[in-house]
Amino acid sequence: MLKQLINAGILACLCGSAQAAATWNFQYQGFLDSRDGVFHADRQVNGSFVGGDWNANGIVERSEITSLVLNGVDYVICEPSTNAYYVCSIEAFNYSAADGLVFTAGERGKDPEGLVGGGHYFVSGEGEYHYRYRPGFEENYSYRWTPETTFTITAVPEPSTWAMLGAGLLLTAAAVRRGRRA
């Protein structure tokens, strides 16, 4: 009976850790600046997202993330601030080991008359775009992805995942120790 209980505990810990949310940190480095036509090897877009594949389809989708940070702005948190003059949104998001990371996110704003405004958005695999305008002035520029742009991503388990893993290891150790005594 005790052996079955221990095995059930181990299984529960292992299953629970598989469903826990994780944080993925990622970085793109090296972009072509549209203003000067020069490739800047040190230019970076740093980001992270928190979520999990809750529907077990092999893809972390927009509905399965609780955070998407790009260069310090969390686009999940700022989405509720959207109004007639300010828009912050994630238009697309998914991540899978097979297809990589795909997202479109950004923010834009304007005054009530539409005379002054600007925006900043990211499209993975394409670029980081900026624009500003006011009477007599307009500026558009981008940092474009190139074949030399590098991408790295790492998953960092949440503390609850580590706790479940630790509990599973403790139960396993207890079962082994009990088996040796018998």
UniProtKB/TrEMBL annotation:
<keyword id="KW-0732">Signal</keyword>
<dbReference type="InterPro" id="IPR013424">
    <property type="entry name" value="Ice-binding_C"/>
</dbReference>
<feature type="signal peptide">
    <location>
        <begin position="1"/>
        <end position="20"/>
    </location>
</feature>
<feature type="domain" description="Ice-binding protein C-terminal">
    <location>
        <begin position="155"/>
        <end position="178"/>
    </location>
</feature>
<protein>
    <recommendedName>
        <fullName>Ice-binding protein C-terminal domain-containing protein</fullName>
    </recommendedName>
</protein>
<dbReference type="Pfam" id="PF07589">
    <property type="entry name" value="PEP-CTERM"/>
</dbReference>
